[in-house]
Amino acid sequence: METRLKAPDLSLLDKVWSINWLLVALLGVIGAIGCAVLYSAAGGAADPWASRHALRLAVGLGVMLALALVDVRFWFRIAYWAFGIGVALLVAVDLTGFAAKGAQRWIDLGPVQLQPSEIMKIALILGLARWFHAAWLEDVRRPLFLVVPLLMVAAPVGLVLLQPDLGTAITLVSVGGTLFFAAGVRWWKFALVIALALGTLPVGWGMMHDYQRQRVITFLNPEQDPLGSGYHIIQSKIALGSGGFWGKGYLHGSQAQLNYLPEKHTDFAFTTLAEETGFVGATSTLALFLAVVLLGIHAATRARSQFARLVIVGLSMNFTVYVVINTAMVMGLIPVVGIPLPLVSYGGTAMLTVLLGFGILLSADVHRETVIQRFPRH
Amino acid sequence: MQQEADRLRWFKRRSLLLGMGTVGLFGTLAGRLWYLQMEQGQRYQLLSESNRVSERLILPPRGRILDRTGRPLADNVPTYRVRVVRELTRDLPGTLENLAQLVPVSPERIAEVVRQAQARPRFVPVVVREDLSWEEVSAIAVRAPELPGVILDAGTVRRYPEGITIAHVLGYVGPVAEPELKDDRDPLLQLPEFRIGKQGIERSYDPILRGSAGRSRVEVNAVGREIRALDRDEGTPGQDLVLSLDLDLQRFCMNRLAPETSAAAALIDVRDGGVLALGSVPSFDPTLFQNGISSRNWASLRDDALAPMVNKAFKGEYPPGSTFKMMTALAGLEAGVIDRHTRIRCTGSIRLGNIEFHCWKKGGHGAVDLVQSLEHSCDVYHYDVARRLGIDRLAEYAARFGLGARTGIDLPGERPGVMPTVAWKRARLDQPWHKGETLISGIGQGFVLATPLQLAVMTARLCNGGYRVSPWLARGGAQHATCCGAPPEPLGIAKEHLDLVLTGMYRVVNSPSGTARASALLTPGVQMAGKTGTSQVRRISKADRLSGAYKRKDIPWKQRDHALFVGYAPVDAPRFAVAVVVEHGGGGSAVAAPIARDILDRALQQGVARPMPPAPGEAA
Asked: What is the pLDDT of residues B427-481, one digit of tens each?
C-alpha cells in the first residue's frame, strides 16, 4: 500500500458533505428527547431545565460540527498533551477542588466549573489511540509494550478514585479496556487481568468509602433500607415498572411528578421517560442509543488510520458505557453510581463533553481517508 | 503493508465483537425493561398507586336520637376549632401569642402546640383549641390577616338539648378507649375526632348511630403533602333512632322526682312494653363527657353518695316490699293453696316455730280474704300463703312476671334483681334455706330485690291480661320504635286469678279503706289501680353499695324505709304501668303513690301522640 506523505486536501464542502449526518440527526433527536423529559420533570415547564438543556444542545451541536471539520491530525498531535493536561487537572482537583455531593469532582475556573474527570475520558482515548496507532499487531502482543498504556489508564483511575468517583473510574477502566481489546490485545490477558481484579476485590472493598460500600450493600438488598440509601432504587423501579407497556402518558408520570423520584432530572431522567412512555418509549430510546453506537463502530471500521479507528471506537464505547451504566442503574441491575444519561440528563459539563467527544469522533470519520504516519515528525 | 492489513483485519473482527457485545448489553437492558414494565408492571402499578394515593377517613354524622314524636333528644351541632399550620406562619410562637390575646390559650398549651407542630411535617395543621364560641370565632376571623397560618374550621359535637332530663337513658359519647379498639375493627375508631357511645342508648345502639366511615382519596407527594383530591365517598351517616320514650312524660317524670333526694320511676306501655319514661334522680350533665371528662368532675360524680351516674330505674335493686304481694297471692291461687274464698285470720302476727312474724298493723286485720289482704296490705295473710307455697313455687310464679332476671331492656348495665330459691341460696351463700325466709319473701322482704323497671313490667304483665311484654326503648335494633309484630305470648295464668288480684289493686286506690286512697287519679272518670310498698332497709340497694354511701350509718335518712308504689291506668282498659321507688322516702302510700298517680295522670291527659298498638287480647 502506498504511503502518502501529504494529506489529501479536503475542501470545506467536501468535509461538510462527509459528515455523518445520520449520526448528527440521531444525537439531535436524543437531545430533543432529553428536552421533553426535562420539561416533564419540571412538572410541565421549560424552566428550569428544559430550556437551558435546549440551549446547551444547540450550542453543543454547533461546537460538535465545528470540531468535526478540524483535521484529525490535529487530535493526533495534541493527544499526549491532552492526556497530560487531563492528568494535571485531576491532580489539581485533588489538591484544590471543592467538595460537591461528598466528592471532589469540580475545579473552579472562574465563571466555569470544570469537571476534569469528563475531560479525562476523552483525553485517555486520545492518548491510548495515539500509543496504539504506532503499534503493529505483534507489538501489541508483547506484554512489555502494554506497560505504558496500562500506566496511562492506571494514573487517571487512581486520581479519580481519590476524589472519590467510582463511576468515572469504572468508565475509564471500561473504555481503556475496550481500546486494548480493539487494538488486538489477546483474550487471555483480559482474563488474567479480570482474575487479578477479582482477587484484589477484598482490598478494594477495604479502600472504599463507607458510602460506596453502603451503595453496594444497598444494591444487593435495597429493601433493607427502604427510606435511606435503598430509597432511590426502590422508587426508581416502582416508577419505571408502573409505566407498563404504553406508559402513563407524557407529563402524567405520577412518581416523577409527585417527587417520589429523586434526581429525576439528572441520573434518573430515564426513569421519568420510562414511566411516562412505558416499554415502547423506553426501548425506542434505547434503540436510538444503540443506533448511535453501531453507527460509530461502523465508522471506525472504514477509517484508514488506526488512530482514527481507535478514537472512533473508543468514543463510541465511552458513550455505550454511559448509557448502559445509567440505564442499568435505574433499572436496579447495578449499584447506584452517579453517571448521567448522555444528552438526556440535565448537566452542562456532561452535555458539552459528550458533544465534544462526538465532534472528535465525527472529525475522525470525516477524515477517514487521511493517513497518519506511525511516527510523524513535526 | 501486510502488518497494516493484519491490524485492520483484527480491528474489524474486534469491532464486530464490540458491536455484538453492545447489542447484547442493550438487549439485556430491553429484557430488563420488559421484566419490570410488562412482567412486574401490575405489581409496580399497585405500588405506585399506594405510593401516590393516601386514603383519609371521613367521619359520618352520628345519627340523632328522637323521642316517639320525633323531637330530638341527641343531635349534632357545629363546633369551631382553630388550627395552625407551621409552614404558613413565619414565627409560630409569636402567632400563637397573638392568638392568645383573642381567645384564651394557656402558655402551657402554646408550648405543647409548638412541640407538636415541630414533630410533624411543616404543612400539617395542629389543633390549638376546639369548641370555640361564636364570639371567639368572629374575633379570630376579623384579625385573620394578622394571624398567618391560623385556620378556623368546623366539626360537630354531640348535643343533648334535654340535658339532665334524659342523660341516664341516652348515656353519652366520648373518645375511644384502648379496650374498645381491641374488639372493634371499625376504621372509624382510628379517627381522633370520633366519639363512641359510652353509656345508655348511645352505647347499646352505637353501631346503628355511628354509620360507616367515608373515604377521600388524596394524591400525595413524597413528603405526604396533598396535591389534589381524587375522589370522595361520604360514607353512610348514622341512622336516626326513634325511641319509645315520650319527652314530655320524661320531663314530667324527672320534675316530679326532682324534690326527692334519690328516687326512680319507670313508665311503660302495658301492651307492648315500650318505655315511655325512665326517671332517676339525681342526674348528671351528659355534655361533660364530650371531650373526655375532667378528672375532678369525674371524681365528684363517682364519689357522690347518691350515685348520680346510676340510672336507678334499671340499675337500682330494692326490696319490693308489699308491691310483691300480688305475686304471693297469684302464686297461691295458681298453685291451689288458696282460693278466692280462703280467709286467713290476722292477729297482728304469725308464729313459725319460736319466731314471731309481725304484721304492720299491730292489732291485726282479723279474717281477710285475698282482695282484702291486698287492699289493706295484710302481712300475715301473705306470710301464711308463702308458707303454704314454699319458696320455690313462689319464685316460679314471680319469675314469670319478670322478677329475679334482667328484663332485657336495650340499655347496658341492667341489674337482674333477686328472686331467691333454695338452690339460689345454696349456690350463692352456701347455706340451707330457712322456712322463716319463705315468710318474709312472701311480703317482698328478705333476699327479694327488684328494680323499679322490673316492678313496672310485673304490673304491666298483671294488668294486660297476663301477657309476657318486655320493656324496650328502640325495639330490635331497628331504627324505629315500632311495636312488636306478633302479640306477646301469654304467661299461662288463669284469667279469674288475675282479675282477683287486680280487684285487690283496684281497691287499694279506690276503696275508702285502701292504703292509697288519697292518691286516686284527679282525671274525672278515669281510675287507676296499684299497690303501695314500704320496704325495710335491711339490705342495701346495689346503687348504695356502689356509691359507698351505706357506710354512713349515722345519717338518719339512710335508715328510713324505701317508699314504693306500682300502679296502672285506666282500670277498665289498662295502657300505662308505672313503678316508683323513693329511696328512704318513708311510707309508700304517702310518698311514692302521689308521684305515681301524677305520672299516670299526666300520661292519660296528654295521651300519646303515636297511635298505640292494640292490646294483645284485642288483636284479631
From this structure: 998 999 999 999 999 999 999 999 999 999 999 999 998 999 889 888 654 444 4
Is B261 within 8 Å of B619 (Cβ atoms)? no
Residues of A in contact with B15 (CB under 8 A): 182, 297, 300-301, 309, 313
Confidence of residue B390 (pLDDT cuts 50, 70, 90): very high
CA dist B347 and B378 (Å) reads 10
User: Which pLDDT score, from 0 to 100, does residue B513 have?
Assistant: 81
Q: Which of A260, A342, A365 is nearest to B53 (CA)?
A: A260
Grid cell, residue B382, equals 301473705
Measuring CA to CA, which residue among A52, A100, A37, A104 is closest to residue A276?
A37
Rounded CA-CA distance B210/B264 in Å is: 30
Q: Which range among A70-79, A195-204, B96-105 has the greatest average pLDDT?
A: A70-79
Backbone angles phi, psi at B126, to 5 degrees: -120, 135
pLDDT at site B620: 33
Residues of B in contact with A259 (CB under 8 A): 221-223
B498-545 confidence digits (pLDDT tens) = 999 999 999 999 888 878 777 777 777 788 899 998 887 754 444 554
CA distances from B26 to A239, A320, B289, B536 (A): 20, 9, 69, 99
Shortest Cα distance, chain A CAs vs residue B192, angstroms: 27
Highest mean pLDDT among B164-173, B412-421, B607-616: B412-421
- Whether pLDDT at A97 is above 60: no
Instruction: Note the ipTM here.
Output: 0.91
CB A221 within 8 A of CB A7: no
Copy the grid coordinates of residue B195: 366519639
Instruction: Find chain B residues with C-beta within 8 A of A187's C-beta.
Output: none
- Spatial neighbors of B298 by CB under 8 A, at least 6 apart, are none
3-class secondary-structure state, position B188? helix
The residues, any chain, with a CB within 8 Å of residue B567's CB and separated by 6 or more, are B459, B505, B509, B516, B528, B529, B530, B531, B577, B578, B593, B596, B597, B600
Q: DSSP labels for A15-54? A: HHHHS-HHHHHHHHHHHHHHHHHHHHHTTS-STTTHHHHH
In the predicted structure, residue B547 carries a pLDDT above the cut 60: no
Counting Cβ atoms within 10 Å, is residue B602 exposed (0-12), middle (13-18) or buried (19+)? buried
Tally A–B CB contacts below 8 A.
143
CB–CB contact A301 B12 (8 Å): yes
**E strand spans, chain A:** 98-100, 103-109, 112-114
Q: How far is A164 from chain B (nearest CA, A)?
A: 27
Alpha-carbon A259 to chain mean position: 27
The pTM of the whole model exceeds 0.80: no
Q: Is the CB of B29 less than 8 angstroms away from the CB of A259?
A: no
> 3-state DSSP call for residue B84?
strand
